[in-house]
Amino acid sequence: MKIELTKPFEVPVDRFSLENKKDEINPYMTGKLLRKRYEGLGYKVIQCADFETSLMVEVVRKYFVLDKYIKVKLGEYKNNKKTDEYNKEILGIIKMEDVEKLLFLCRVCSYLGDPNFPDFIIFKDGKASLRYVYTGDELMSGKLFFIFLARCLLEIEIKFATLDFSDHKNSNSINTDFISVLKSSLEKLSKRINVEDSSGDVGADLSFLNKWLEEKSADKEAINRSFDQLVSKFSENTKLKENFSKLKSINFTETENKTKPEKLALLREKLGVNMMEANELLTLKEIVG
């Protein structure tokens, strides 16, 4: 299915009235006020500041993968209960396949300089939706880029949420020219990656974006193929997976009180791996458990 990009790109806005004047409310309070409004309507509201780094842990656990993007994002990861509880909460309302697709979009948008993931998830009557906080200021094109890609890749509602003040009202929707958004996004992406040969950096082919701009239409199948390419890459047998399976031959519980250099030395001695491979194994062991 193709979407004509010459048509206005419309994103609905949830509006909540407030008796105060706009300059009486600190913009940073808007998110808290919106959260209370949704909760007052019976929604469960989950903040998403840590969505990508937290749920990425589940991808690592599923595929036993640590590509360079994941390693940069997770850094020196330390297993913690809060991450596990947060992930369990999210996966209770959004299926893993959709989480993986949302993380794919975070990965693509990160090369714009920010993952641009929505501010929170709202959940009610078995349905989860995503919301960006909108304060009436100029929109970041990255958010619109994320929303459009999400519409092409999965079925999940994404809207803006805002407050209407006594002296300032917002529109029921935000309309924009997506061709301009796409052009701006491609310019930013091109400064960080080779869009026509992005598999090495991103793990998936993003050349379809140039084709979308050239043809002024978006082919949904193209972005789905790109996502499938990344999943296929995650599913491949790798040296890391082979080495990790060999950890069973080591009684790792005996190393709990040892320093990291001592653990690395043990891995190198017992498995015959180099220092980089040993580091990756320690990271994977910390995540997977």
Task: Give an account of the 3D structure.
This protein has helices at residues 30-40, 51-63, 68-74, 81-91, 96-110, 141-153, 178-190, 199-202, 208-215, 220-235, 239-246, 260-271, 275-288; strands spanning 2-4, 9-17, 44-47, 120-124, 127-133, 158-164, 173-176, 217-219. It has 13 helices and 8 strands. A hairpin with a 2-residue loop joins strand 4 and strand 5. The longest helix has 16 residues, at 220-235. The mean pLDDT is 93. The chain is of the alpha/beta class. The protein has a 6-stranded mixed β-sheet. The protein has a two-stranded antiparallel sheet with strand order 1-8. The chain is globular. The chain folds into 2 domains: 2-235, no CATH class; 239-288, no CATH class.
Protein topology:
Elements (H helix, E strand, L loop, with lengths): L1 E3 L4 E9 L12 H11 L3 E4 L3 H13 L4 H7 L6 H11 L4 H15 L9 E5 L2 E7 L7 H13 L4 E7 L8 E4 L1 H13 L8 H4 L5 H8 L1 E3 H16 L3 H8 L13 H12 L3 H14 L1
Parallel strand pairs: 2-6, 5-6
Antiparallel strand pairs: 1-8, 2-7, 3-4, 4-5
Helix pairs in contact: 2-4, 2-5, 5-6, 6-7, 12-13
Task: Report the portion of residues in β strands.
Answer: 5-15%
Regions with little confidence, pLDDT below 50 for 5+ residues? none
In whole angstroms, the N-to-C terminal distance is 42 Å
State the oligomer: single chain
Query: How many domains make up the coordinates?
Result: 2
> What is the C-alpha radius of gyration, as a whole number of Å?
22 Å
Q: How large is the count of helical segments?
A: 13
The structural class is alpha/beta
Helix content: 40-55%
Shape: globular
**Average of pLDDT:** 93
The beta-strand count equals 8
List the strand order in the largest sheet: 3-4-5-6-2-7
SSE arrangement, N to C: EEHEHHHHEEHEEHHHEHHHH
Could you describe the largest sheet, including whether it forms a barrel? 6 strands, mixed
